């Protein structure tokens, strides 16, 4: 017995799922979004550091990052809520000559992909950002870099989706998806059976478990990223700061707190659903933050958390149809691809694909079919 029907079922209430649901509804689709947690945005999308740095993305998605930066500029107006997007410009710093060489090589390659960054010396860097350490040998500057409050934005996009008619059901875990004989899908959940002509799977690290019921598997590994937040302090950081080694992100929010991230790992597992920061990662993250911005050494950390983050093995997102399953689609980001940065864009592109069969930016290269069909199951 079917409990509810919709044109499209969206599975997952992160930034991609909520954005996808919003754009689908704007295109006239009747949409139900299913979220396993008690609210949207409580998994990877809501627990990340909120960095929207364009210049630290993998080369293959540079064009997506550039398009995403353009979308973020107008996204508040489109959803009808002020999202608090701050484009402050970003400095990607290097502390050694070896790191500086790496930084310059990256800039050369980025130009080939259409991203122009400015290479500046250590002295020039400190003129722009006097709070940086004397140890900084140089930086690449990108005026497109910025940040947001990650959890706030997901919830506002979800609210905009509801305004467009999307029904959001929380505490609803998907147990199985099965194709109907002619077309469409039945989705068995902890709150009954749903029917839809099309299904969008945007469940992050849980996406793999769901697609397996459709006969499609892919490699994904579990990351447990952690973030720290300092006490409120007078204005100090005026840019988005990242490190060429990928182990630091810094930004100061309008309320005065400083968010410290960078992919340092916590502990936890999907079986117990526990995730927690580790003392070792907190110390490591704090140490490099203080090396880059010495004044941080006098500002207390008041909060830290950890969250699950699914990562594809090639660090590039999966966007497109589910092979062999007409009407089923998959959209999941990953830490290396900056899933939050490109999240609203991915939601728009996959909504276009669902509604029209094509997208304004080609996404075929991001299809899950790029993986070997004899995929090795990656242990969590």
Task: Please explain how this structure is put together.
This protein folds into two domains: 4-49 and 151-220 and 314-370, FAD/NAD(P)-binding domain; 89-145 and 222-312, D-Amino Acid Oxidase, Chain A, domain 2. The strands form four sheets. Strands 1, 2, 9, 10, 11, 12, 20 and 21 form an eight-stranded mixed sheet that branches. The protein has an eight-stranded mixed sheet with strand order 6-7-5-14-15-16-13-19. A three-stranded antiparallel sheet has the order 3-8-4, with no helix packed on it. With 380 residues, the protein is an alpha+beta fold. Strand 15 and strand 16 (258-261) form a beta hairpin. The radius of gyration is 21 Å and the shape is globular. The protein contains nine helices and 21 strands. The relative contact order is 0.20. 28% of the residues lie in helices and 28% in strands. Residues 373-380 have low confidence and may be disordered.
């Amino acid at each position: 017995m079917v409990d509810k029907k919709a044109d499209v079922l969206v599975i997952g209430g992160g930034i991609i799922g909520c954005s996808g649901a919003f754009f689908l509804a704007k295109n006239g689709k009747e949409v139900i979004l299913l979220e396993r947690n008690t609210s949207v945005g409580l998994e990877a999308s809501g627990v990340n550091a909120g960095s929207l740095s364009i210049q630290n993305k993998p080369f293959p998605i540079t064009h997506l990052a550039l398009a995403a930066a353009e979308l973020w500029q107008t996204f508040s107006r489109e959803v009808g809520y002020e999202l608090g997007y701050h484009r402050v410009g970003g400095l990607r710093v290097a502390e050694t000559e070896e790191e500086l060489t790496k930084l310059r090589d990256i800039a050369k390659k980025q130009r080939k992909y259409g991203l122009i960054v400015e290479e500046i010396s250590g002295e020039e860097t400190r003129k722009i950002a006097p709070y940086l350490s004397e140890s900084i040998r140089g930086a690449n500057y990108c005026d497109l870099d910025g940040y947001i409050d990650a959890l706030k934005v997901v919830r506002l996009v979800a609210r905009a989706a509801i305004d467009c008619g999307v029904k959001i059901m929380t505490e609803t875990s998907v147990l199985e998806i099965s194709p109907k004989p002619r077309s469409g899908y039945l989705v068995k959940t902890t709150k009954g059976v749903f029917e839809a002509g099309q299904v969008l799977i945007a469940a992050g690290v849980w996406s793999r478990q769901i697609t397996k019921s459709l006969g499609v598997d892919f490699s994904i590994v579990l990351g447990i990223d952690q973030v720290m937040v300092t006490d409120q302090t007078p204005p100090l950081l005026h840019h988005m700061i990242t490190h060429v080694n990928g182990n630091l992100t810094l930004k100061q929010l309008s309320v005065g707190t400083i968010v410290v991230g960078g992919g340092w790992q916590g502990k936890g597992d999907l079986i117990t659903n526990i995730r927690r920061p580790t003392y070792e990662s907190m110390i490591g993250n704090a140490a490099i933050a203080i090396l880059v911005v010495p004044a941080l050494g006098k500002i207390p950390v008041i909060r830290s958390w950890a969250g699950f983050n699914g990562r594809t093995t090639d660090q590039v997102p999966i966007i497109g149809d589910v092979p062999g399953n007409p009407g089923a689609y998959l959209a999941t980001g990953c830490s290396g691809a900056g899933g939050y940065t490109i999240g609203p864009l991915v939601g728009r592109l996959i909504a276009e694909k669902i509604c029209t069969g094509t997208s304004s930016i080609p996404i075929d290269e991001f299809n899950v079919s790029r993986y070997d069909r004899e995929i090795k199951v990656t242990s969590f």
